């Protein structure tokens, strides 16, 4: 048995409201339908892993301004989006007429009015789990709110290859190879992301954890992984250029097809 849960609780100091000052910036960037990465990569992967069925109750945790809502509703399922930012929820309600949007902290679902144990068939974290800390509190809460046999789908930046401020691309001239540099991986990190244009005080924090933390914490909470996807980005179209530029564009496309951008997984709550 791993004791990730107790470690995480000792660490419970992060405020959930970090995104509130960034709401206008985020909404402007995402729009109603999400970024290109959302539309082409992240949402299709989440919907495939989720396999939402008509009438199912789905909880979108860290829903932001609700980009997932129309997809879940179109599948005939019942959508609830939860977020800690009132401004993002206001935008969610403005963008999406259907679905329910609730203000709350993902680490404390057990204390949130209207939440009951075993009430959802599935839960989703779409690019939100790396904004939440500590992980064990979040996973205990999600395990509590899911029915036995219910599933959780998580899509995040791939923690092995995209370590905020501690990884990046490089070019090796002799081999004409574009490579991925990883400076740190095993140590969990809290990384303040840079302030966004037009935002005086907005800084969100990204939490890096190695893959073993995710898998062991899910297992500790009775959430057993049954499928995983490692998702690469799409080709850039610069291969039509000339000379070195062309060589570099090819190497870039190859690297983009080999080194994943996102990791997505589905885990299922054990039936006791
Ligand atoms: C990167 S945004 C992703 C939003 C949305 N899922 C999307 O893909 O556009 C992360 C979201 O997680 C929310 N969040 C962070 N910590 C939270 C917590 N403890 N409880 C609920 N929401 C939280 C933030 O307010 C923010 O809306």
TrEMBL record:
**CDD domains recorded:** AdoMet_MTases
Pfam families reported for this sequence: Methyltransf_25
Does Transferase appear among the keywords?
yes
Record's SUPFAM superfamilies? S-adenosyl-L-methionine-dependent methyltransferases
Span of domain Methyltransferase? 58-150
Q: Which GO terms describe its molecular function?
A: methyltransferase activity
One Gene Ontology BP term is: methylation
Stored InterPro entries: Methyltransf_25, SAM-dependent_MTases_sf
Keywords, alphabetical:
Methyltransferase, Transferase
Q: What is this protein called?
A: Methyltransferase domain-containing protein
């Amino acid at each position: 048995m791993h004791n990730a849960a107790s470690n995480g609780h000792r660490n419970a100091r992060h405020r959930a409201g970090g995104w509130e000052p960034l709401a206008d910036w985020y909404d402007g960037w995402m729009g109603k339908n999400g970024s290109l990465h959302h539309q082409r990569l992240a949402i299709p992967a989440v919907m495939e892993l989720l396999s939402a069925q008509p009438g199912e109750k789905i909880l979108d945790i860290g829903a932001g301004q609700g980009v997932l809502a129309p997809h879940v509703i179109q599948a005939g399922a019942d959508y609830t989006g939860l977020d800690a930012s009132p401004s993002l929820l206001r935008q969610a309600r403005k963008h999406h007429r259907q679905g329910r949007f609730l203000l709350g902290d993902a680490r404390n679902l057990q204390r949130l009015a209207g939440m009951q144990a075993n009430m959802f068939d599935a839960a989703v974290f779409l690019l939100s789990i790396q904004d939440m800390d500590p992980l064990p509190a979040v996973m205990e809460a999600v395990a509590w709110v899911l029915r036995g046999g219910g599933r959780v789908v998580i899509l995040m930046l791939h923690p092995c290859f995209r370590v905020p401020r501690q990884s990046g691309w490089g070019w090796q001239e002799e081999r004409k190879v574009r490579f991925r540099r990883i400076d740190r991986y095993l140590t969990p990190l809290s990384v303040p992301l840079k302030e966004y244009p037009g935002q005086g005080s907005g800084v969100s924090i990204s939490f890096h954890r190695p893959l073993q933390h995710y898998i062991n914490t899910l297992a500790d909470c009775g959430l057993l992984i049954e499928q995983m996807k490692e998702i690469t980005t799409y080709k850039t179209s610069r291969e039509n250029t000339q000379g070195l530029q062309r060589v570099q564009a090819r190497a870039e496309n190859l690297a983009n097809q080999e080194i994943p951008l996102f990791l997505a997984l589905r885990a299922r709550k054990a039936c006791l």
